Each structure stands twice: as C-alpha cells, then as structure tokens.
C-alpha cells in the first residue's frame, strides 16, 4: 500500500455517522435552544426541521456525485470536478482553515466548561487553558492513530449524550407539566414569523460537520453504499433528534415559561436545560448533563480534527501543500503528518490566547464564529458544484436528483449564509467592525487557495481527482 494511501475499508456507515453527528455536538445544541428562543422566538424546534429539509435536498445530489469522486478532500474534489480547478483550490484552503479555527475554538469551550465542572465537583479553580491544552493533546493522539479508534471513542461519547437527553425527554413527557402539550414550536407561523430569521443562524450552524461523510470515502467499506447511507442517517437523526428534544424542552417550561426564562435578565437561558433536567429527573441527571457538555465539545474536536487532517492530506497529494502532508503512517494508515501539524497549530493558538489574556469564551467565539460562516459557504459551493457537474451530463440520474434538488439546496444554503452574515453577532458575541473582520476570513482564505493553486499548477502539480 502506498505511503500516501489511507486505510481502506476501516469504517462502516455507523462509524462515519458517529464522526459527523459528534461534530454537531447534539447536547450543546439542545442546551442553546433557549438562546434561540430569545433571539428568534418559540419556533426554534421547527427551525431545526426546516434546516434539515434544506440539507436533505443537498444530500440528494451530494450522494449522487459520491460515486464519481473518491477523495478525502470532499468539497475540494467536488468543486474541482464541478466548477473547475480554481474553485476547488479555493474551497480546499477555505474549508481546511475553517475546520482548523473551529477545532481551536472548541478548546476554549472545553476549558470554560471544564473549569466550571472542576469547581463544582472538586472545589478548586482550574485554569481553562490547562483543560484546553490537555484535550488538544488527547485529540492529537487519537488523530494519529487508526481512524476506527476515534470512531469507537466517539460512539461512547455520543451514546452518552443521546441517553441523557432521552431520559430527560421521557421524564418530561410522563410527568405533570406547566401547560398541556402543544405543537406551537413546530408551527410554520412561528418558524417563519417576522424576526425569526435569527433561528436559522442557529439552525444551520447546528448541522455543521454532517458534510464530513464524504471525507471518509477512501476509508469506508463499500463507499458507493456506505457514504449515502451515512449522510442520510446523519441528517435524519440530527433533524428529528434536535426538533424532538428542543420541543420537549419547551414543553418542560411551557411556552409562556420558556419565553419568560429565555428573556430573563442575565444568562439564565444558558441554565434552562439543566434546571429543567433537575426538576424532572433529579440532580444526578442534571450533573451528568453538565459534565457531558465538556465531552460533547471534546467529541466535536475529535471529529473536526480528523476532517481537517484529511483536507490537508488531500492538498498534499495534489501539490497544493508540500508532499509530506500526504504521508500516511506505515502501520496506522492515518494522515499523521497532517494530524500532527494541526495539533501543533492548535496548541500554538491556545498559547497565543493565554498570552493575550483572552477569557475562554471570548477565545472560543472569536475562532468558532468565522469557521461556521465558512463551512456553510463551502456547503453552498458544494451544492453548486453538484449542479454544474451534472448539468453537462446527468449520467443516468433523474433531473430531480441531480438538478432540481441541488438547485433548491444551493438557494436554501445561500439564504442561510445571508442570515448568518446579517446576524453574525449572535454567534460571535461581538458587534461592529470586528464581525466584518471575522467574515472576511472566508473570502480571504478562498482567494489564498486560488492563488496557491495557480502557483502549484505552474510548478506542475497534478489536478484534483
């Protein structure tokens, strides 16, 4: 096997699902539902479903193209085949950089919540960066090893998240609630109400990572079947689970109570899931949930670290980066050079944050926010790439699958990107010119990719497959 070849046949559909669903961090998404209600109204659960519909349309064309693109670069390869080499190179660098800053941001979240948990459980103040650095090293070790090792770790962490949320849901539904059950949070009149556009900032952001199924195409068993199954399973699970759990959380408080709590002064909205969990299922479940928030971000870091490593690997193989990035470990068959590089960059980023005196949440949001915008932009380009690829030749597919669905997905993702850009302060936590600076991260990295690709082409680098 070539030293630039990943381990083939290591991942089944469920292994890939664990990677991409863990990247979405379901527990943390549900914990932010009251914030969604605060900024966009009671239709938050329905917004998760609506975003899921758009991404299902995306998946219809995305999976059709999978059989023609077998490359760990995913959007890199899709854009190259559909829109041309410049677009592919731009998307490659943009997506890799966005994944990289998001991974870095997760360690800020890990540090913040770990600090709270250590104080609660052990009574002493743990510097946030100690937990951040420690988890970054742990994730680096997992990224260095075989891909199925990371999948097994994510399976355990994700299962724990799902179990506590299901226990909470059952506890709420079988007990007396402040108001009768209502479908109001799912009603289109609330989901698409005036001023509810902010809901879709959270809605689309909550699915970040699902597109990672195609990243593992070279390591999947029977990829022509595994990748579509994993993609549809991930979207179906996330959309239904998000909507159901968010709906249950609204039922736990009642519509009136949820609106009042979400708009209470201070940051009570951030505690509403845990308060409800303690009220309905006891302190033990609430404590487990708060602890699992830390592991939820850890799981997301593992997933995005692996995704970023495979983008760097793909770029090394085509000359967009030095060839050493395309090396795989002789025994592990992992992209170890790319993985170690990401770990070093992330550790350096955390240290810069510490030396700059940034608090963990400030550090997290400043790195996470531009990543979210860039990845949704990459999804939109991916939909356009599918549309362009099949416009010339449908290759036996129906117009619905390779033209209508991708076209609608591109439109929906374009609207989502606009809403994220115009409501960027909701995910950055900042106002003013700083937001514009963070938004520029996406076009600047895209332009750098185009420029670097042209230099590589002049040097005789191979085209993306």
TrEMBL record:
<dbReference type="Pfam" id="PF00324">
    <property type="entry name" value="AA_permease"/>
</dbReference>
<keyword id="KW-0812">Transmembrane</keyword>
<dbReference type="GO" id="GO:0055085">
    <property type="term" value="P:transmembrane transport"/>
</dbReference>
<feature type="domain" description="Amino acid permease/ SLC12A">
    <location>
        <begin position="16"/>
        <end position="413"/>
    </location>
</feature>
<protein>
    <submittedName>
        <fullName>APC family permease</fullName>
    </submittedName>
</protein>
<dbReference type="InterPro" id="IPR050367">
    <property type="entry name" value="APC_superfamily"/>
</dbReference>
<keyword id="KW-0472">Membrane</keyword>
<feature type="transmembrane region" description="Helical">
    <location>
        <begin position="230"/>
        <end position="250"/>
    </location>
</feature>
<dbReference type="InterPro" id="IPR004841">
    <property type="entry name" value="AA-permease/SLC12A_dom"/>
</dbReference>
<feature type="transmembrane region" description="Helical">
    <location>
        <begin position="402"/>
        <end position="421"/>
    </location>
</feature>
<keyword id="KW-1133">Transmembrane helix</keyword>
<feature type="transmembrane region" description="Helical">
    <location>
        <begin position="12"/>
        <end position="35"/>
    </location>
</feature>
<dbReference type="GO" id="GO:0016020">
    <property type="term" value="C:membrane"/>
</dbReference>
<feature type="transmembrane region" description="Helical">
    <location>
        <begin position="368"/>
        <end position="390"/>
    </location>
</feature>
<feature type="transmembrane region" description="Helical">
    <location>
        <begin position="47"/>
        <end position="69"/>
    </location>
</feature>
<feature type="transmembrane region" description="Helical">
    <location>
        <begin position="289"/>
        <end position="313"/>
    </location>
</feature>
<feature type="transmembrane region" description="Helical">
    <location>
        <begin position="153"/>
        <end position="174"/>
    </location>
</feature>
<feature type="transmembrane region" description="Helical">
    <location>
        <begin position="126"/>
        <end position="144"/>
    </location>
</feature>
<feature type="transmembrane region" description="Helical">
    <location>
        <begin position="334"/>
        <end position="356"/>
    </location>
</feature>
<feature type="transmembrane region" description="Helical">
    <location>
        <begin position="186"/>
        <end position="210"/>
    </location>
</feature>
<feature type="transmembrane region" description="Helical">
    <location>
        <begin position="433"/>
        <end position="451"/>
    </location>
</feature>
<feature type="transmembrane region" description="Helical">
    <location>
        <begin position="90"/>
        <end position="114"/>
    </location>
</feature>
């Amino acid at each position: 096997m070539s030293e630039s070849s990943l381990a083939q046949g290591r991942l089944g559909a469920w292994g890939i699902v664990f990677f991409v669903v863990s990247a979405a961090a379901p527990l943390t998404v549900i914990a932010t539902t009251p914030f969604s209600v605060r900024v966009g109204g009671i239709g938050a659960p329905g917004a998760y479903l609506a975003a899921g519909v758009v991404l299902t349309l995306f998946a219809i064309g995305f999976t059709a193209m999978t059989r023609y693109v077998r490359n760990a670069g995913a959007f890199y390869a899709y854009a190259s085949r559909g829109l041309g080499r410049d677009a592919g190179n731009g998307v490659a660098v943009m997506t890799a950089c966005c994944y990289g800053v998001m991974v870095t941001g997760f360690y800020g979240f890990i540090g913040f919540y770990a600090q709270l948990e250590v104080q609660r459980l052990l009574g002493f103040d743990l510097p946030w960066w100690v937990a951040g650095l420690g988890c970054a090293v742990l994730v680096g070790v997992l990224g260095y090893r075989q891909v199925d090792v990371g999948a097994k770790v994510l399976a355990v962490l994700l299962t724990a998240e799902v179990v506590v949320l299901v226990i909470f849901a059952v506890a709420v539904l079988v007990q007396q609630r402040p108001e009768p059950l209502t479908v109001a949070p799912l009603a289109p009149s609330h989901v698409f109400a005036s001023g509810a556009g902010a809901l879709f900032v959270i809605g689309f952001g909550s699915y970040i990572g699902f597109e990672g199924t195609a990243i593992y195409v070279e390591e999947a068993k029977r990829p022509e079947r595994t990748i579509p199954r994993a993609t549809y399973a991930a979207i179906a699970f996330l959309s239904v689970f998000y909507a159901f759990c968010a709906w249950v959380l609204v039922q736990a408080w009642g519509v009136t109570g949820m609106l009042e709590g979400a708009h209470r002064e201070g940051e009570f909205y951030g505690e509403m899931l845990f308060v409800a969990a303690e009220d309905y299922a006891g302190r033990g479940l609430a404590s487990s949930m708060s602890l699992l928030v830390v592991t939820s971000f850890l799981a997301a870091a593992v997933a995005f670290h692996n995704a970023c490593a495979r983008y760097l690997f793909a770029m090394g193989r085509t000359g967009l980066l030095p060839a050493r990035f395309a090396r795989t470990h002789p025994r592990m068959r992992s992209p170890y050079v790319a993985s170690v590089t990401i770990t070093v960059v992330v550790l350096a980023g955390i240290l810069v944050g510490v030396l700059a005196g940034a608090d963990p949440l400030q550090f997290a949001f400043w790195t996470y926010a531009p990543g979210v915008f860039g990845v949704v932009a990459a999804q939109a380009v991916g939909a356009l790439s599918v549309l362009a690829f099949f416009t010339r030749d449908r290759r036996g597919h129906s117009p619905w699958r390779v033209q209508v669905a991708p076209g609608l997905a591109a439109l929906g993702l374009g609207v989502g990107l606009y809403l994220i850009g115009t409501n960027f302060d909701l995910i950055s936590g900042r106002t003013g010119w700083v937001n514009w600076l963070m938004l520029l991260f996406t076009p600047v990295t895209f332009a750098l990719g185009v420029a670097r690709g042209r230099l590589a082409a002049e040097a005789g680098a191979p085209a993306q497959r």
